[in-house]
Amino acid sequence: MEQFLTVREVLRRRASYYPHPRDPDAVIGLVGLGEKSGARVRTLSGGLQRRLDLGLALIGDPELLFLDEPTTGFDPNARREAWDIVRSLTGEGRTVLLTTHYMDEAQVLADRVAVISKGVIVASGTPDSIGGRDTGTAKIRFVLPEQASGTAELGLADTHLTVSPIDGRRMIEVDTDSPTPLLQRLTSWAVAHDIELEGLEVARPSLEDVYLSLTAEETA
Fold it and tell me: What is the rounded distance in angstroms from the CA atom of residue 143 to the CA atom of residue 165?
């Protein structure tokens, strides 16, 4: 039946089920369906249907909200808009329990993350610390400057590193548990020689790396 109603009609009808609902027109604006408020539900694309689903979840003004893969089918702009909605809800003091396979989504939105494999929580914590992300081995990358005679000159003689040829240049990757002193040696050399270290970056294991590692251990 709802397939033949308009977006506004569906939200108004659902709002009537609750004692203190949100304003349907405000919800329509919140989920980005203003231009489709008069469209019948059956004419909506998959992405717009997901927006309507989110609107239906919000219309009762819940204190606790469960969102199951809420941005599946969204284009990048729609995903960011959905993230803003979730942020606004948590900013109001509401609790959102969100399931997602998008690790960037979990990184951006979550205060705490739980990784579930085969129905069991295998790790939990903040996005920055789960799985030892904050203490794990860091990877430092940079292009070896032409002015350097070798990596030892940069203070890397005692490090574990790999050298990869890229477009006639050498990309250096160093694995280290203590990135700060190593970076100090590198940047001091670069400053002393008035050289910019091209492509310099420091990376800890990503949330996706941690997820893959944890789930691989469970399936091994």
Answer: 10
